[in-house]
Amino acid sequence: QVQLVESGGGSVQVGGSLSLSCAASGGVLSSWNVGWFRQAPGKARESVASMDWSGRDITYADFVKGRFTISRDSAKNTLYLILNNLEPDDTAVYYCNKQRPPYWNWGRGTQVTVSL
């Protein structure tokens, strides 16, 4: 079973930036289609960005609007998400996992808080 550890979250003001990381163990990320998800308080978990196993097919949710960038370092077996021009609605816990079910066990996520 793949273990996932997300990090890099924090508290920023509107317009700020953060760099999230997702370190994987017990499996090779580049063998799977993977992605970032987020869950805001009282809301369902939603997909933010995804990358296929080759790294060539990348998709973003409509709300990203060119502000986020997903990437992968195969040597480090780590997935990244760069968040730019953050908005209050981006406040959520961010997770990484396979792009589609069946999912691996979810990590604890990393909290992103954006304030005015």
* Cross-sheet strand order for the largest sheet: 2-10-9-4-5-6
- The unreliable regions are none
Q: End-to-end span in angstroms?
A: 40 Å
* Percentage of residues assigned to helices: under 10%
Report the total helices.
Answer: 0
User: How many strand units?
Assistant: 10
Strand content: over 45%
Average pLDDT: 97
Q: How large is the radius of gyration?
A: 13 Å
What global shape is seen?
globular
SSE string, helix = H, strand = E? EEEEEEEEEE
Computed structural class: mainly beta
Sheet having the most strands: 6 strands, mixed
The quaternary organization reads as single chain
Note down, in words, how this protein is organized.
The chain has strands spanning 3-7, 10-13, 18-25, 34-39, 46-51, 58-60, 68-73, 78-83, 92-98, 110-115. It has no helices and ten strands. 0% of the residues lie in helices and 49% in strands. The mean pLDDT is 97. A hairpin with a 6-residue loop joins strand 5 (46-51) and strand 6. The chain has 116 residues and is mostly beta strands. The strands form two sheets. It has a six-stranded mixed β-sheet with strand order 2-10-9-4-5-6, with no helix packed on it.
